[in-house]
Amino acid sequence: MSRTLPPLQTVSTGFVVAIVGFFSSFPVVLQGLDAMGATPAQQASGLMAASFAMGLSAIALSLWSKQPVSVAWSTPGAALLAASQIPEAGFAGAVGAFLLAGALTVIAGLWKPLNRLTNMIPVPLAQAMLAGVLLSLCIKPFQALAEIPMMALPIILTWFIVSLFSRVFAVPAAVLVSAFVVAANAGFDLPAPDQLIGRPVLTAPEFNIADLLSIGLPLFIVTMATQNIPGLAVLRSYGYQPRSGPSVASVGLASILSAPFGALATCLAAITAAMCANEESHPDPAQRYWSAASSGVFYCSIGLFSAVITGFAGLTPPLVLGTVAGVALLGVFANSTVAALEEADYRQSAAITFLVTASGVALLGLSAAVWGLVIGGIVQVISDRVKRKS
What we know:
- This protein is mostly helical.
- It has 18 helices and 2 strands.
- It has one domain.
């Protein structure tokens, strides 16, 4: 007889996954939306739409495949937005770029040539681009130490001490401490009951070539290279055989549907996928999909209160929010840097990609992330040809 209710152990795992997945990275998402010119109402709407997109996708994919398919918003993509210049067309231009990234993801899932083309981008260069994007965000905590030490130091110390025992809960603990720090310094009054639930704000997209190339294309590349592909690899490492094409296309479709409400890219998760797929989720591998499905329910529940979360973040000094975002991304930055420079054959081109991206230079309407990939790719092609001839 088949089980109709999820095992309690998987429900508790799903709750932990949602808490970690949401509170470890929502400051990065808010910073990304703010950098794109979103108003507070649009930011709250985007946070809610992103929560529902990843929550409903996790529920649907896990129940359909009977595998623990964990879904997330693209934290590296949010970091890319946070380090980018405001689009020429404002937030409407960013929404158009989100739609392009989602459409390319659907095509990559269903059309093998684009999937192969995406996979042709050398992993070291993609990781170097991501590391370059993250650099300016990861130094924020140390800038905050110099300017607001009494607010930044408790957050950094909490993150460091908790990380010694549990990396999974280090950032949520830092978020909690930052909330106490802000409340102690600025205070926070709960909104009226009718304002507790977030409200969707529809933003009509504008399709500007410069914005599409500078934001949409890098968002697609960084999400595919650092989220979707690793997310599938994590599931395979635990003995599952995910249907990669439909899974990638599904999160791309979720991105398209949620983008007009301000959500950035939805993607397959890697870290939380490991939490859902390991034996601590459930002793029986055939039951672990309930963990991912349960996390989806909790993501949607948390997303309902996006207005409160965004309102509280609005009271937070920018450097405090930057401190939380910075410590949340330190692990990603370290892993990306190692992956970028690990292979000797790609070290020079990866270093150039990293430096060009980190410089923030924007030429001909294209962002530094695009130029980093282009220049690094040209250097790698020339180096490979010279090596073959010698």
